[in-house]
Specification:
The complex is a heterodimer of chains A (708) and B (291).
Chain A lengths: L11 H6 L4 H5 L1 H13 L9 H4 L2 H19 L1 H27 L7 H19 L1 H23 L4 H21 L17 E2 L2 E2 L3 H23 L2 H11 L1 H7 L3 H27 L9 H14 L6 H15 L7 H15 L3 H21 L3 H26 L25 E10 L2 E11 L4 E5 L6 H8 L6 E6 L2 E3 L4 H6 L2 E3 L12 H6 L10 H6 L1 H21 L15 H14 L4 E5 L7 H16 L3 E5 L3 H7 L2 E6 L2 E6 L1 H6 L1 H8 L9 H7 L26
Parallel strand pairs in A: 5-10, 5-11, 8-9, 9-10
Antiparallel strand pairs in A: 1-2, 3-4, 3-6, 6-7, 11-12
Helix pairs in contact in A: 5-10, 6-10, 6-13, 6-14, 6-15, 7-8, 7-9, 7-13, 8-13, 11-12, 11-13, 14-15, 14-17, 18-25, 23-24
Chain B lengths: L1 H31 L6 H17 L5 H24 L7 H22 L15 E4 L2 E4 H23 L1 H11 L1 H6 L4 H23 L11 H14 L7 H18 L8 H12 L14
Helix pairs in contact in B: 1-5, 1-6, 1-8, 1-9, 1-10, 2-3, 2-4, 2-8, 2-9, 3-8, 5-6, 6-8, 9-10, 9-11, 10-11
Classes of the chains: A alpha/beta (708), B mainly alpha (291).
Chain lengths: 708, 291
C-alpha cells in the first residue's frame, strides 16, 4: 500500500489515449524525436502496437538505395550478376519468411514453387512476352500453392514438412519428364532475356534495376503485411493455434493465406531466375535450394523481415567465396551450416537486434533511472492496491468492454425463466478405455457463478476442453439457448464463450497488447486485401482495437506492460493477460480453469473482485478451482465431479454437507476427520474465520485490506 | 503373370528397404521428437563402409558387413554428440535443419573419400536368382525382405518390452521428467542415435548389392521411407512395415502398368491423398491437442 509511483498504472480511460509504454514515457527525448520522425514520414503509430511503431517502409527505401549504390560502386557484370542473384533469392526468402518465419509452416516446397514459376513463365513468355510470363508465374504458383495447402494444411508439422518435401520431389520429376512443356530432361535453353515495353534487358547491368524493382515491391508487400493484423494472426497461429482459434482467428485460413502468398513470391523469383540466366534446369530447384532457403532464413534470423536479406546475401556469397577450396566446398558449407545453427540461434538480424537493444538499454541507464527495468515491478506493486477498486470501478463505467448488465439491479442466482447462459448435457469423453467424463450435465444460469470442483483427475479440465471443442466429446451444448456443435472451438467462441487455461496460454511471439487485440471481436479488414489495399480504414480499425485492448489490459493491471513481449511475462502476469484476452471479447460465459492457482492472498482477493465485477457486467462464470475458500466466497452454486461423474450440485453449504462430497475428497473412511471445507461452508459469511489449509482465506465483500 | 510377380517382388524388396530406413529415423523420432534428415546419407555411408571394408581391408563379405554396422553405431553416437546434443533445447526446426547440415557433411565427406564414380558391391549369393512362376527374383532381395521382418520384430520388442525401450519412451514423453526419475538421458539418447545409425548401416549393406553404389544411394529411398511413415501415422513403428509395402506397391506394381515414367510420383500422390483425408495418417490417432 505504499505510494504509487509518479506515473501510476493509469486508469482505463487515460491509459489508452496516449502511448503508455513505460519505455516511451520514461525517456522523453527519444520519444519526441520519434514523434517528429513519425510525422515526417506520415506515420501515426500512437496507440498502435509495436509493429506499427517501426519504420519498415523507411528501411525499405534505405535498403533499395543502398542496393543501387552498391551496384553502382561494384559495377561490372560480375558485381551486377551477384547482386542480381541476391535480389532474386531475397524475394524467394522473403516469401519463405511469410511461410515459415511468420506462420511457422515447416515447408520444403519453396524451391519447388520457384520451379513452378520458372517453367510457367518460360512457357507463357514464349508466346506472350516476359511480363505476361512473370505475372502468370505468380498466379500459377499461388494457385498451385493454394491447392496444396488445401490438401495438407491440417497435417502436423513433420507430416507437413514431409508432404511439402514430397511435393518438391513431384515437381522436379514432372518438369524433368513432361517434355511437352520443357525440353528433354526438363532443360530449356536459350530463354529470351526479359523485355518490358519493347525494351530488352540484355545484360546483367541492364537487368539490375528490374530485379531491384521487383525486390522493392516484394519488400513493400512484406512491410505492409508486417504493419497489419495479418502478422499478428499469423504469429498466433504459429505460436499457439489453440489460443488463436479461441480468439477467433481462422487458423487454417491464415495458414493457407500465408503459404499461398509466400509461394507466390517464390513463383516470381523463379520467373526472374529463369529469364535472368536464360536457361532452366529441374536440378536448380532441388532440395539443395530448399535447404539454402532455410539456411538463408535461419542465418539471417527469422524474427524480422530483414533477416531474409542478410541470409540471402550469405547464401549467394559464401559458396562463391568458397570456390577456392575446390572439392571441399560442399563439406565446408555443410559444416558451416551446423556451426552457424549452433552458434547463432536467432540469426544475424537477431544478433544486431540484441546488440541495438543492449545499446539502447545502456543509453537508457546512462540517461535516467532504470525505469524500463523497474516497470514490471512497479506494475506489480501497483496492481495490488490498484486492483482492489479497479475492476469494480471499471465495471461501472460505460466505456468498458463487457456488456451492460441487462438490469443494473439484477439478482444473482440460478436463472429463473431466461435461457441458461450455458447448458451442457450428457457430455461424454473417452480416452482409449478411460471414460474421463461420463454423461455430465451442467447448467450455468445467466449471471450465475458456478464452481466446478473435484479431486485431481476427476475430469474438470477435460470437461472444459470438451465443451470448448478441444477434445472429442459427445453430448449437447447450448449457449444462451442456442445449440452449439461440439468439436468446433471457433463456433463455441463465436457463441460467446471465453476461457482461460490451467497453464496460462499466451501467444509468446506477440506483445501483451497484440495478444489482447487478437481477441477483439471486431474482425473486419483483417485480411491481406485490407493490409495491401485499404490501409486507412484498416489502420483506424486497428486503432480502435488497440484502444479496446488497452482498456482490457488496464482492467487487469497490465496497462504498463502493453508493449512487453508476452514471453517475458512471469506466471501470474500471464494469467492476467489471459483474462484480459477473454474480457476484450465481451463473452457471455467465461470458463476459468484454476484461475487462482499460484496466486498469493492479495492476488486471490483481486481475482475474486474481478470475477464479481465480471458478473456484475452480465457475465456468467464457470470456475474450476481448488481454492475452496474462493469458491465458497463467490459462487452461487457448486458442482462436484468425481471420476468423471457429477456427485453433487447445489449451493456451497449444502454441497459441503453432502457425505458423498466428503467421501469424494477424503476417500470415504468412516473415521475421517471433519473436512475443512464443510466447516468453511458453515461459516461462509463469517469471512476469514475458516482456516482452510488448502486455500488462503478470502474476505467477503470489498474490504480487501482486512486480511493479515 | 510373371511380370506381375516380378513387380510384386520388387515392391516387397523396396518396401523392406523403406521400412528399414524408416525404422532408423522413427527410433530417433520416438526418443527426441525430431526427424533425422541425415538418415538417408547414413544409409549411403553404411553401404560405402562395407564396400571399403570388403575391397580395401579385404575382409570377408560378412565381416565387412558387421564392421560397417559397428562403425555406423559409432557414427550415430558422434552425430548425437556433435550435431544434436548442443542444440537439443532449441526448436525442432533448428534441430532438423542441423540434421540437414549433417547430411550435407556426410555426403560431401563420402564424395571426397571415395570419388563419385559408381561402385558395385557383391552379394553373398554371387548374384544367383530364384525362378518363381517365371519371375526371376535375386536371392539378395529375399534376404532383404527376410532381414527386414526380423529387424522390425526385434525393434518392436526392444522398444516395447525392454528397459531401454521404456527409457526411450520416457525420453520422448518428457525428457526433464525422465531425467528426474533417474534415467541416464544422455546415455539413452546416444544409444538411440547409435542404434538408429546402425539400422541405417544394415539398410545400406543390404541394398548396396542390389544397385550401383553412388553418393545418392540413400537419399531417394529416405524420401519414400518418410512417405511410408507419414502414410500410416508418423511415430508408429510396427505399422511402418505396412506403409512401406503400400509405398512399394504404388511405386512398382501400379507404376509398372500406369505411366511408368512417373512411377516415382505414385508413393507421394498416395501419401498426399491420405493426408488430405486423414491428416494424421491412416492409423494415426485423430484426436485434438490436449491443453
Amino acid at each position: 500500500m505504499s505510494e504509487l509511483p509518479p506515473s501510476p498504472a493509469a486508469p482505463a480511460a487515460s491509459a489508452s489515449s496516449t502511448s503508455s509504454s513505460p519505455r516511451a514515457r520514461s525517456s522523453s527525448p527519444p520519444r519526441s524525436r520519434r514523434a517528429v520522425v513519425n510525422r515526417l514520414l506520415g506515420r501515426a503509430a500512437d496507440g498502435l502496437p509495436v509493429p506499427y511503431q517501426r519504420g519498415q517502409l523507411a528501411v525499405v527505401v534505405g535498403v533499395i538505395a543502398v542496393t543501387l549504390l552498391v551496384g553502382a560502386l561494384t559495377g561490372g557484370e560480375y558485381g551486377y550478376g551477384l547482386l542480381g542473384a541476391w535480389a532474386v533469392l531475397s524475394i524467394s526468402t522473403l516469401g519463405f519468411y511469410l511461410v515459415f518465419g511468420l506462420s511457422g509452416q515447416f515447408a520444403f516446397s519453396q524451391a519447388a514453387f520457384m520451379a513452378v514459376g520458372g517453367y510457367t513463365s518460360v512457357a507463357v513468355a514464349r508466346h506472350a512476352g516476359f511480363l505476361a510470363g512473370f505475372v502468370s508465374a505468380i498466379v500459377v504458383a499461388a494457385l498451385v500453392a493454394a491447392l496444396l495447402a488445401l490438401l495438407i494444411s491440417r497435417t502436423e508439422h513433420f507430416a507437413f514438412a514431409i508432404a511439402t518435401l514430397a511435393f518438391g520431389f513431384v515437381a522436379t520429376v514432372v518438369f524433368r519428364e513432361w517434355e511437352d512443356i520443357s525440353g528433354p530432361g526438363g532443360e530449356v535453353l536459350g530463354i529470351e532475356r526479359p523485355s518490358l515495353f519493347g525494351h530488352t534487358f540484355a545484360t546483367d547491368e541492364a537487368l539490375f534495376p528490374v530485379l531491384v524493382g521487383a525486390l522493392a515491391i516484394a519488400l513493400v508487400v512484406v512491410a505492409l503485411v508486417e504493419r497489419s493484423p495479418v502478422r499478428r494472426e499469423a504469429i498466433a497461429v504459429r505460436d499457439n493455434p489453440v489460443v488463436a482459434t479461441l480468439s477467433g482467428v481462422f487458423v487454417q485460413r491464415r495458414r493457407m493465406l500465408l503459404f499461398t502468398l509466400g509461394s507466390a513470391f517464390a513463383g516470381a523469383a523463379g520467373s526472374l531466375l529463369a529469364h535472368r540466366s536464360a536457361a532452366i534446369f529441374p536440378e536448380t530447384f532441388s532440395l539443395q535450394l530448399a535447404i539454402n532457403l532455410f539456411l538463408a532464413l535461419l542465418f539471417g534470423g527469422m524474427g524480422s523481415m530483414w533477416g531474409p536479406l542478410l541470409g540471402a546475401l550469405f547464401v549467394t556469397q559464401v559458396p562463391e567465396r568458397l570456390r577456392f577450396v575446390g572439392r571441399y566446398q560442399d563439406l565446408i558449407y555443410g559444416a558451416l551450416l551446423v556451426v552457424i545453427i549452433v552458434a547463432v540461434p536467432d540469426g544475424l538480424a537477431g544478433v544486431t537486434g540484441r546488440a541495438s537493444r543492449a545499446l539502447r538499454a545502456y543509453a537508457h541507464r546512462r540517461g535516467r533511472t532504470t525505469a524500463t527495468a523497474r516497470a514490471p515491478l512497479e506494475a506489480d506493486e501497483a496492481a495490488g492496491p490498484a486492483a482492489a477498486d479497479e475492476p469494480g470501478a471499471a465495471a461501472g463505467e460505460s466505456a468498458v468492454p463487457g456488456r451492460q448488465p441487462p438490469g443494473q439491479g439484477r439478482t444473482s442466482g440460478p436463472a429463473g425463466d431466461a435461457a441458461p447462459a450455458l447448458a451442457a448435457r450428457d457430455i461424454d469423453v473417452r480416452f482409449g478405455g478411460v471414460r474421463a467424463v461420463a454423461e455430465v450435465g451442467l447448467t450455468v444460469g445467466a449471471g450465475e457463478i458456478v464452481g466446478l470442483v473435484g479431486p485431481n483427475g476427476s475430469g474438470k479440465s477435460t470437461f472444459l476442453n470438451a465443451i470448448t471443442g478441444l477434445v472429442p466429446a459427445v453430448g449437447s451444448l447450448e449457449v444462451g439457448g442456442a445449440a452449439v456443435p461440439l468439436r468446433r472451438p471457433a463456433r463455441v467462441r463465436a457463441a460467446g464463450v471465453g476461457r482461460t487455461f490451467q497453464t496460462p496460454q499466451v501467444v509468446e511471439g506477440l506483445t501483451c497488447l497484440e495478444n489482447v487485440m487478437l481477441a477483439v471481436p471486431e474482425r473486419r479488414l483483417a485480411g491481406l486485401g485490407a493490409a495491401l489495399g485499404r490501409r486507412r480504414a484498416m489502420i483506424s480499425l486497428e486503432r480502435a482495437r488497440a484502444q479496446r485492448a488497452r482498456v482490457a489490459l488496464a482492467r487487469v493491471g497490465l496497462a504498463e506492460l502493453a508493449d512487453t513481449p508476452a514471453n517475458q511475462l512471469a506466471y501470474g502476469w500471464r494469467r492476467r493477460l489471459e483474462l484480459a484476452r477473454v474480457l476484450v471479447a465481451e463473452p457471455k460465459v467465461v470458463l476459468l480453469d484454476e484461475p487462482a492457482a499460484g496466486l498469493n492472498e492479495a492476488e486471490t482477493r483481486w481475482l475474486a473482485e474481478m470475477l464479481r465485477s465480471l458478473r456484475a457486467a452480465g457475465c456468467s462464470l464457470l470456475i474450476v478451482e481448488h481454492k475452496l475458500a474462493l469458491l465458497n466466497d463467490i459462487c452461487d452454486r457448486l458442482v462436484v465431479l468425481r471420476l468423471g461423474e457429477v456427485v453433487a450440485a447445489g449451493e456451497p453449504a449444502a454441497v459441503w454437507a453432502d457425505p458423498r462430497v466428503v467421501e469424494a475428497y477424503l476417500g470415504g473412511g468412516p473415521a475421517a476427520p471433519a473436512p475443512p471445507a464443510p466447516a468453511m461452508a458453515a461459516g461462509q459469511q463469517a469471512a476469514g474465520t475458516a482456516d482452510a489449509p488448502v486455500a488462503a482465506p478470502t474476505t467477503a465483500g470489498g474490504n480487501g485490506d482486512a486480511a493479515s | 503373370m510373371s511380370g506381375f510377380i516380378t513387380s510384386l517382388a520388387s515392391a516387397l524388396t523396396q518396401g523392406s528397404v523403406f521400412a528399414l530406413i524408416a525404422l532408423g529415423f522413427l527410433l530417433i523420432y520416438r526418443a527426441t521428437g525430431v526427424v533425422n534428415f541425415a538418415q538417408g546419407d547414413l544409409v549411403t555411408l553404411g553401404a560405402y563402409l562395407s564396400y571399403w571394408a570388403y575391397h580395401d581391408l579385404e575382409l570377408t563379405l560378412l565381416s565387412s558387413w558387421l564392421l560397417a554396422v559397428a562403425i555406423m553405431f559409432v557414427v550415430g553416437v558422434a552425430l548425437e554428440r556433435f550435431a544434436y546434443a548442443p542444440i537439443r533445447t532449441r526448436s525442432e526446426h533448428t534441430v532438423v535443419i542441423a540434421t540437414l547440415g549433417a547430411a550435407m557433411v556426410i555426403r560431401a565427406s563420402i564424395a571426397i573419400w571415395q570419388d563419385t564414380s559408381p561402385k558395385f558391391s557383391p552379394d553373398p549369393f554371387n548374384g544367383e536368382i530364384m525362378e518363381l512362376a517365371g519371375a526371376r527374383i535375386p536371392y539378395q532381395n529375399l534376404l532383404v525382405i527376410g532381414a527386414t521382418v526380423v529387424i522390425v520384430a526385434g525393434t518392436l520388442l526392444l522398444v516395447g518390452r525392454t528397459g531401454f525401450g521404456r527409457s526411450i519412451r520416457a525420453l520422448a514423453a518428457d525428457r526433464g521428467a525422465a531425467s528426474l526419475v533417474g534415467i541416464p538421458v544422455s546415455r539413452v539418447s546416444m544409444l538411440a542415435f547409435g542404434l538408429s545409425s546402425a539400422l541405417a548401416g544394415v539398410a545400406g549393406v543390404l541394398i548396396a548389392p542390389t544397385q550401383a553404389l553412388t553418393v545418392d544411394l540413400g537419399f531417394g529411398p529416405m524420401l519414400f521411407a518418410f512417405a511410408a511413415a507419414v502414410l500410416v501415422g508418423l511415430g508408429r513403428i510396427g505399422a511402418v512395415l505396412l506403409g512401406a509395402v503400400a509405398i512399394g506397391i504404388a511405386q512398382y506394381v501400379v507404376g509398372r502398368y500406369v505411366f511408368p515414367d512417373f512411377r516415382d510420383l505414385y508413393p507421394f500422390i498416395l501419401m498426399l491423398a491420405v493426408l488430405a483425408i486423414r491428416p494424421r495418417g491412416l492409423l494415426g490417432e485423430q484426436v485434438g491437442r490436449r491443453v
